[in-house]
């Protein structure tokens, strides 16, 4: 099966958020990324909020560099700690580089 590598970056400042191999039957909108970086959690809205449902551990993930909310949804929660990764909400501020677009080497640790 053919695949290509996608790099996800912040739409506003270009900071790399994640990389993923894309398989033939997927689109870049079917994103669930497991390795990600340069994201911070915005805790200003609900400092006393205790997550209990799936996906409520990190509600507002922001770009580390420009602090814009990315529209990403964390799958983990206190109730379901086994779920890992990020998925998109309805509006997601990601820029997608495909194998031919990537102007740099990315090494996510």
Topology:
Elements: E1 3-10, E2 16-23, E3 32-33, E4 39-41, E5 61-63, E6 72-74, E7 86-88, E8 94-97
Q: Look up the CATH topology.
A: Metal Binding Protein, Guanine Nucleotide Exchange Factor, Chain A
Strand order of the largest sheet: 2-1-8
Number of helices, where a helix is a run of at least 4 consecutive DSSP H or I residues: 0
**Relative strand content:** 25-35%
- What is the rounded distance between the termini? 26 Å
Architecture, CATH level 2? Beta Complex
The top level CATH class name: Mainly Beta
Q: Supply the helix-strand structural class.
A: mainly beta
**Shape estimate:** flat
Describe this structure in words.
About 15% of the residues are buried. The chain is mainly β. The protein has a single domain, classed as Metal Binding Protein, Guanine Nucleotide Exchange Factor, Chain A (Beta Complex). Helix content is about 0%, strand content about 30%. The protein contains no helices and eight strands. β1 and β2 form a beta hairpin. The chain has a three-stranded antiparallel sheet with strand order 2-1-8, with no helix packed on it. It has a three-stranded antiparallel sheet with strand order 3-7-6, with no helix packed on it.
